[in-house]
Each structure stands twice: as C-alpha cells, then as structure tokens.
Amino acid sequence: MPGLTLGDTIPNLEVETTHGRIKLHDYIGDSWTIIFSHSGDFTPVCTTELGKMAAYTEEFARREVKLLGLSCDDVQSHKEWIKDIEAYTPGSKVTYPIAVDPKREIIKQLNMVDPDEKDSSGNNLPSRALHIVGPDKKIKLSFLYPASTGRNMDEVLRALESLQKAAKHKIATPANWKPGEPVLIPPSVSNEQAKEMFPQGFQTCGLPSKKEYLRFTQV
Fold first, then answer.
1. Per annotation, catalytic residue among 28, 34, 46, 129
2. Quick check: helix, strand or coil at residue 89?
3. Of these four, 44, 63, 195, 215, which has the most CB atoms within 10 Å of its CB?
4. Per-residue pLDDT tens for 111-159?
5. Which long-range contacts (CB under 8 A, 24 or more apart) does 101-107 make?
6. d(CA 34, CA 16)
7. What span, in angstroms and rounded, lies between the C-alpha atoms of 100 and 72?
8. Residue 66: is its pLDDT beyond 50?
C-alpha cells in the first residue's frame, strides 16, 4: 500500500488522547508498540475490537508491548464509548490511551485511511489498520482490514511473538506457527554458524533437491 509501510520510521506526531497529549516517539520509548485505528466511536465492530484489546492487555504487557488506539472522535466521546466497551467485555478495562483525529490528519500520516468509507460529511474514515512498531520506531508489520471484517487478536499476538523472537534469536517462523513450536533457521545462517547460535541443536529436513535449507530448532 502507498505511504507509510514496512521499515519506515513512525512519524513523531503529537496527539491528544484519553491519557492527555503524547508524542509518539516518547510514548513508544524502548518498547514494542501496537497502534490500531478505528472508523468511529459507538460502532459495533470497533467496540468488539477494543474490547478484545482490553481483554488481551495482560498478554501484551507480559511481552512489554504498549497499545495505542486511534479514532476520529473527540476525547469526551472516547471516554463515554469506553463505558460501552467495558460493559461489553466484563472484567476487562481499557487502560490504553485512545487518540483523537477530528481533522483526519493523523490517519493520513500513519497510512490508515479507508479509501471507500466516508462519514456523513464526505470525510474519509480510518481503515481497520494496525501497525506493530519496534523499539527502533520502525514499522515491523501492518494489517489492513475492511470495515466489515474485525481483526483477530490471536493473530495479532501470534505475529507479535514471531517478530519478537525473530529480532532476539535471528530466526523465522513457518506457516501456521504458534508460540512454543519449532522455528526456522534462515538461509543466511550457515550450518557452522547455526551450531554456535543454537547449541540445543537443529533438525534439517531431507528434501528431493538435497539442499539443506529447511532447518528447524527450538528457542
């Protein structure tokens, strides 16, 4: 997609949120951060999504991940909406900030504009976009969903853990990987290097090509 994309540094925007004004780089600090946009307050799919984010707060906190929501409505609207979100998700609290963007400027700079969805005044609405930002302030992964499809928080968590393990251990994760399952050693790592990097050992799959590129290990 055009605009801000993988590998780009997130702009250091100053935004108004339900927790006061923040600068994105200061908020991110040295942490992984998930920034996720919503089409509007008091809308059905968004309410379920923010509720799920609240329910997963402890899972993200264990991975030292910060959350930042974004919707175009104002702070007071956000605070009233939070009451509905928490009522819909009993036992969960929205402890993360939700930013405001009444002029639709932030969603443009963060590449979160839905080209098809507009409000009653003809203004563009945010897409169901989600950026996972690394401690280096660069975008590591982006999801982009249409208004009709709610995001899967299990997949967000799975992708996040994959990114964190890849950054820490210099590995990759295979299709349908889940935390705790074997991971892949990338081709850039020779067998000799792999022996040093992964003293626990690794398994090489025998393939018709006789090429030893499919190597699994545990981290």
1. 46
2. coil
3. 215
4. 998 777 766 677 777 789 999 999 999 999 999 998 889 999 999 999 9
5. 101/15, 101/70, 101/71, 101/72, 101/126, 102/72, 102/73, 102/74, 104/72, 106/13, 106/15, 106/70, 107/37, 107/70, 107/72
6. 17
7. 5
8. yes
